[in-house]
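During the reporting period the student researcher (J.K.) took over the structure-prediction task from the postdoctoral fellow and processed the backlog of single-chain submissions. One of the processed entries is reproduced below for the supervisory committee.
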Amino acid sequence: MFDALIFDLDGTIIDSVPDVCASINRALDSMGRPPITIENTKELVRFGAHTLCDKALAITGEPGNQDDIRLLETKFLDNYRKNPSEHTSIFPGAVDALNQFRDYGIKLGICTNKPEATCFPVLDALKLRHYFSSIICGDTIKFKKPDPRHVYYTMNKMGAELGNTAFIGDSEDDIKAANNAGIPSVLVTFGYCHVPFDSLHVDARIDHYEKLNMTLRSIASKRSKHSD
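J.K. obtained the following structure tokens:
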């Protein structure tokens, strides 16, 4: 089995789009803009807060200048901090899997493009923060997924080694980040992926967390045999 596991957050552990959508729409309304849809939000959530706000302005009228984007971002983050988990749910089986891996003594970390200002409030609201020895957000450092330096930094803070770490995510950026970092990956198919699954170079796919343990063991076993 792997010694360390890195997880994405939005679309991987939690279904956060309903709260992201509600918060950005409250912010847009305060600026006289119409709302965006859940589907719009699913397309934009992977980019992080600044790009989300930039694209939300473009969708809802004239593109904003940098002052408009910063104002919307400030309002969005403030709204989200105040309402981090009103409509957010943990994906079925995720907590059981985290408990299982923790009992095995496996190091767990989060590598997310979500900003710190909204990541930690939602983790605390859902009582998830304590599972992870390292939580590296989209603004913790200047690099974000799919840049492999985001993954490497997370691994370094976890004390994880390259040959004994796997990545679990839901989007093309997650899988590209894992590939760029040279670590195996598992795609959860219930998240916010925007491309055909078959187009991704991923070691395995799962449709429920109950399959993750055996899937990771299978990947580790194949890699061990290959190295021999």
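The committee noted the following: The first helix runs from residue 17 to 30.
J.K. will present the remaining backlog at the next meeting.
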